[in-house]
Amino acid sequence: MKLVVLGSGTSVPHSQRASPAFWLETQCGSILLDCSADAAHRMAEENLEWPNLDAIWISHLHLDHCGGLASLLFGLKWAPQTQARRKPLKIFSCKGIERLLQAIDSSNEYGLFKQPFPVELHEVENGSDDFAILPGLHAQVFSTPHTPESLAIRLTDGDASLAYSSDTGFSEGLASFASGVNLLILECSFHRKKPVPTHLELADAMRIAKIAEPRKLLLTHLYPEWDGIDIEAKARELWPGTSIAADDGLRLEI
Ligand SMILES: [Zn+2]
Ligand SMILES: [Zn+2]
Predict the structure, then answer these.
(1) Which one of 15, 102, 175, 225 is at 20 to 30 Å from 235 when CA atoms are compared?
(2) How many Å apart are CA 90 and CA 208, to the nearest integer?
(3) According to the model, what pLDDT value does residue 127 have?
(4) If you measure from the C-alpha of residue 210 to the centroid of ligand 1, how many angstroms do you get, rounded to a whole number?
(5) Angle 246-4-173 (CA atoms, 0-180°, nearest 5)?
(6) Rounded CA gap, 93 and 123, in Å?
(7) Which ligand is nearest to the CA of 147?
(8) Gap from CA of 27 to ligand 1 centroid (Å)
(9) 141 C-alpha vs ligand 1 centroid, how far in Å?
């Protein structure tokens, strides 16, 4: 698998960090992990094959994670690059995205689901059976302590595995869920003294890393309070494994 960080930031506007989105290439196709308002433009900026995107994963309904989905569908509907496309676009999401998209769609007759190609929308929830996000690409979800619908996802592509926490509070269960993955994409919203229990600060993130022992840890969802701090050095003080601070444009082989 190959990962491109499209947005390492949060909902807070930032000159260096777009809102959350990751481009993932697998043996079975490409997936967009979360779709912030910045995601569409960032895919183009990174010269990614966005007209052929196979699937989208939406972790929860906060707008920094799903606020770009309607506008991406609107863009795909009218883009010259997608007019000859017939391959379906699969959207897998937490509960509630269909209602949100329908509300936007019906507010102005955008026709977001009337595309040159089929759009297949699947909502999953905690306790849902494992599913194939793409044929051959195994997916499992885990409910995280953030909002009621929030889900982490674990993907297995042949020998390679990846887990993406999206937004979460501390959870030993999440650490077990991500155990032994090749790459754990973990939110690390705050350095210390987090203002809410529904996000992680560095010490929480590294506790999760200690339990999960991923081969590599990618720290993301970085609020501006991280500006000017050597995140990787701070992480190494708490966990000896490989911690990488996400940056927009960072590319990783998994
Ligand atoms: Zn967020
Ligand atoms: Zn959130």
Answers:
(1) 15
(2) 31
(3) 86
(4) 23
(5) 60
(6) 5
(7) 2
(8) 28
(9) 18
Provide the total of helices (H) and of strands (E) in the chain, helices listed first: 7, 14
What is residue 128's predicted lDDT score, i.e. its pLDDT? 86
Q: Is 80 helix (H, G, I), strand (E, B) or coil?
A: helix
CA of 159 to the centre of ligand 2 (A): 30
Per-run averaged pLDDT (10 residues), the chain, 254 residues: 98 98 98 98 98 98 98 98 98 98 97 97 93 97 98 97 98 98 98 97 98 98 98 98 98 97
- Give pTM, 2 decimals: 0.98
Report the first-to-last Cα separation within the chain, whole angstroms: 5
Tokens of 70: 């309607």
Tell me the CA–centroid distance for residue 232 and ligand 1, in Å.
21
Give the closest ligand to the alpha carbon of residue 65. 1
Residue 195, beta-bridge partner list: none
